[in-house]
Amino acid sequence: MPSEEHRIDPTQLAQITDLELLARIVVDGFMTGLHRSPRFGTSIEFAQYRAYTQGDDPRFIDWSLYARTDRLHTKLFQDDTNLRCTIMIDCSASMNYASGAVSKFQYARMLAACLALLLFRQKDGIGLIGFQESAELYLPPRNSARHLRRLQVELNSLQAKGKTDISRALEYAGDVSPPRGMLILISDLLHPVESTIAPLRLMRARNHDAIVFQISDPSEQTFPFKKSVTLLDAESDREQFVVPDSIREEYLENRERHFSQIRNECLAVEIDVDEFVTDEPLDRALHAFLQRRTQTLSSGQARRNQSVMGGFG
Question: Could you tell me which residue, 37 or 175, shows the higher pLDDT?
Answer without folding.
Answer: 175
